[in-house]
Fold this protein.
Amino acid sequence: MKRIVLVVVLLTSMLTVKAQTVSSAEVKKTVAHITLVCGLSPSQAEDVKPVVEQYLKARKENKQRCGSDTKELNRLNKEAHENYLIYLGQILNTSQLDKIKPKRSYHKTTRTNTTHHVIHNGQLTHKSLSEESKKHKKENEDNKLRKKKKE
């Protein structure tokens, strides 16, 4: 009986630890992205690695802790992101850090002013979603008119 209890306790603790750890693939992917975007030196990439791991772990813990409470999750994730930027600021220079920060302010715009990235003829362009919405709405209306004419 004692062995069964011991095995159950060990399995439960192992599963809990596994759920809270961040996969090395996630960390490598994030560090590779930051290295690409910011042009990090190899020593900076090594210094950034534990910061990224801590940030991803905090987000995972926040998700487990909050469950379906999205407001609390968003608040905790925002706090974790602010701490993440502070720690990154100690490693990166200002020009490198500025390449990361605009991505957050990009998502804070309103729906009518939001833009998305479009690659057209090998060039990255920004298009307003309101322009895209108007374009799709007009195309839908044109298609409806064509269908009516065919009938």
Observations:
- Helices lie at 2-20, 24-38, 42-66, 70-91, 94-100, 102-107, 129-150.
- The chain is about 75% helix and 10% strand.
